[in-house]
């Protein structure tokens, strides 16, 4: 769409050999497969966006069947809480990174709000709130995120 949106990447840099917990953003062409949002904080960005409900989690438990997917509390294995106290996950664009759940290959590579300019993520790609809202309102499922 002719816009450049500054972003933050993982504290582990950009890596071709992404592993769970390395803090790296995986190199490659990733597709946007979903959008989640906090309905108590932001308006639904698009009709295909799904609300983040209390108890929504993302499994980062390598070796579990639900690895790298949305799960519900209570969930006994390692996970990330999607309904956060801070605004970082008010809007989340989900990528197809490791969608087959290959153990140890990394999970939860999202596009989300950044903490502040230049502050790295745990492997996600993060934008200012204004840019993320703009992106969420214009992006379509299947859009490409290219990380070089």
What brief labels describe this structure?
single chain, mainly beta, six-stranded mixed β-sheet, 1 helix
Label the overall shape. globular
What is the β-strand count?
A: 11
Straight-line distance between termini: 19 Å
Assembly classification: single chain
pLDDT < 50 runs, ≥5 residues: none
Number of helices: 1
* Helicity level: under 10%
Mean pLDDT, as a whole number? 97
Strand content: 25-35%
Radius of gyration: 14 Å
* Largest beta-sheet details: 6 strands, mixed
Secondary-structure class: mainly beta
> What is the helix/strand order?
EEEEEEEEEEHE
What does this structure look like?
This protein is mainly beta. The chain contains 1 helix and 11 strands; from the N terminus they run ββββββββββαβ. It has one helix spanning 129-138, and strands spanning 14-15, 25-26, 28-37, 50-51, 56-59, 70-72, 79-81, 91-95, 110-113, 125-127, 144-147. The strands form 3 sheets. Strands 3, 4, 8, 9, 10 and 11 form a 6-stranded mixed sheet that branches. A 3-stranded antiparallel sheet has the order 6-5-7, with no helix packed on it. The longest helix is centred in the C-terminal third of the chain and has 10 residues, at 129-138. The two termini are 19 Å apart.
Give a short overview.
This protein is mainly β and 148 residues long.
Q: Topology, please?
A:
Layout lengths: L13 E2 L9 E2 L1 E10 L12 E2 L4 E4 L10 E3 L6 E3 L9 E5 L14 E4 L11 E3 L1 H10 L5 E4 L1
Parallel strand pairs: 1-2, 3-4, 9-10
Antiparallel strand pairs: 3-8, 3-11, 5-6, 5-7, 8-9
């Amino acid at each position: 769409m002719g816009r450049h949106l500054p972003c933050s990447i993982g504290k582990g840099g950009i890596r071709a050999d992404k592993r769970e917990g390395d803090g790296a953003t995986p190199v490659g062409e990733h597709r946007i497969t979903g959008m989640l949002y906090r309905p108590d904080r932001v308006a639904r960005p698009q009709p295909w966006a799904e609300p983040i409900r209390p108890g929504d989690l993302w499994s980062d438990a390598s070796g579990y069947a639900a690895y790298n997917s949305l799960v519900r509390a209570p969930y006994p294995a390692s996970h990330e809480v999607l309904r956060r106290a801070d605004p970082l996950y008010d809007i989340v664009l989900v990528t197809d990174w490791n969608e087959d759940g290959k153990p140890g290959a990394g999970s939860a590579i999202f596009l989300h709000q950044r903490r502040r300019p230049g502050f790295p993520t745990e492997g996600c790609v993060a934008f200012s709130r204004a840019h993320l809202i703009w992106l969420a309102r214009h992006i379509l499922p299947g859009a490409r995120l290219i990380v070089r």
